[in-house]
């Protein structure tokens, strides 16, 4: 297909979303998506540069990588761009002391951060910890601040677990934004800063890079706004209506990561 | 003050918000706001027509009225416009079978409604029942519907309990709207239909009526858009910044319901 040759010409680096592309999370950690373990291995044996770019915020980077290695993936912590470390950097730079509305699994990422007398709220995908009580506590803290600062690790609408679609942090961000009359600062996809830091670590320019993800807005739209190309996989949270999204059109739609890698190995960097 | 004489001239009917105007809810049911029991009694002895117009959706109308009577208020069920009965009417008219994301206290209002094979979600101020699990269940049902319908009893940002500010249903409406990419239908203030039904029950025209509430957007802005006048009380969820709201300006600001009634008895219907 000549069309793929044109679409993928000059690609030298690949950013891979993790959840919904490599695996579906769920009971017992989750399951790899068929063909993805081998697809990552083939990509890494090729001349293409590879980096993982995730909004995962329920687990620390270490725990996420340990889980993926158990599932068979060739991946190390240094290859992953994730929002928690990026958030810690911002907190330190701006002297912010967070109240954390997060999942216990990611709490260790904030061990070195001063959390006394909070002057901001940091929220991530807290899952079951998004209780009314915890949401209300964060709300009350924001309402008592003269200049309320709300930082969110990602703003996803939902993600897919093996048991079905699950509400993501973005829904709860919208709740606090509305209640407090404020706008959150998002660390993670689709923030341009986040994609740029991943590209920098990858060592290629935006026009030489392609994002592969299951989120039409966060992955595809976000990457394209940074000048990258982007493929949407029909796994994870993909829904058929995504191919007719009113605002975002991917550079290509593929059944899964395996098909994306087949195409890349055949056509990229030609 | 001549200015009040002008502002209140021709008022023949009064709509009273309940929470934050008559009482603050909280431990043990709540406490009356100082002077409000007597203020309601004085209003009802006057020539002015009085009706209560509430977005309360944690309690059935019967339970709410019983609580207020225990606190000393002269009030009966027939005098209250509330969103649950209005919602049941809509469900019946449109053949909708709701999945209910509500507080147990209001469940009895929906006893006569068919809830098998839900084809919509009805949400109210569920309080502690806004768990992640319950929110996710409502989300999953909406995502499985071809034409998802979300009906919300009110869309308040927050309300005040004796222990502090509390997240209201509107925050959770925003969460589901964002996650599902839909817009909720709101039954309750500030919906014009809701104010109109209260006015009809009151038996006066909009230009002859005044709303007294603590919510600058839901009470004051909503009533004014219907052609009514509106006073904001400095009790309940009132915050000083409300007096400089970028979009809504009340026809007057008063310390509490007692002051509003003093002014009305002095100047209304002249």
From TrEMBL, chains A, B:
Protein name per UniProt: Phospholysine phosphohistidine inorganic pyrophosphate phosphatase
Compartment(s) where it occurs, according to its Swiss-Prot or TrEMBL record: Cytoplasm; Nucleus
Function: Phosphatase that hydrolyzes imidodiphosphate, 3-phosphohistidine and 6-phospholysine. Has broad substrate specificity and can also hydrolyze inorganic diphosphate, but with lower efficiency.
Main location: cytoplasm
Known catalytic reactions: diphosphate + H2O = 2 phosphate + H(+)
The protein's Enzyme Commission number: 3.6.1.1
Family of this protein: Belongs to the HAD-like hydrolase superfamily.
GO CC entries: cytosol; nucleus
InterPro entries tied to this protein: HAD-like_sf, HAD-SF_hydro_IA, HAD-SF_hydro_IIA, HAD_sf, LHPP/HDHD2
Organism: Sciurus carolinensis
């Amino acid at each position: 297909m000549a069309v793929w040759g044109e679409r993928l010409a000059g690609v030298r680096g690949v950013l891979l979303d993790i959840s919904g592309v490599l695996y579906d999370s769920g009971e017992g950690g989750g399951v790899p998506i068929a063909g993805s373990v081998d697809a990552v291995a083939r990509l890494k044996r090729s001349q293409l540069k590879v980096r993982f770019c995730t909004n995962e915020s329920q687990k620390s980077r270490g725990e996420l990588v340990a889980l993926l290695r158990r599932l068979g993936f060739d991946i190390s912590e240094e290859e992953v761009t994730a929002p928690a470390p990026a958030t810690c950097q911002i907190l330190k730079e701006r002297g912010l002391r967070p109240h954390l509305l997060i999942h216990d699994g990611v709490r260790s990422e904030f061990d070195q951060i001063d959390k006394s007398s909070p002057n901001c709220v940091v929220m991530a995908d807290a899952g079951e910890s998004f209780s009314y009580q915890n949401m209300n506590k964060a709300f009350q803290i924001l309402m008592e601040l003269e200049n309320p600062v709300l930082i969110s690790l990602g703003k996803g609408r939902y993600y897919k677990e093996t048991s079905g679609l699950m509400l993501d942090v973005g829904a709860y961000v919208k709740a606090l934004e509305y209640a407090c009359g404020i706008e959150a600062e998002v660390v993670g996809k689709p923030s341009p800063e986040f994609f740029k830091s991943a590209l920098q670590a990858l060592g290629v320019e935006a026009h030489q890079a392609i994002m592969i993800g299951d989120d039409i807005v966060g992955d595809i739209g976000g990457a394209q706004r940074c000048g990258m190309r982007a493929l949407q996989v029909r796994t994870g949270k993909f829904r058929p209506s995504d191919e007719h999204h009113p605002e975002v059109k991917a550079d290509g739609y593929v059944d899964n990561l395996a098909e994306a890698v087949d195409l890349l190995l055949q056509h990229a960097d030609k």
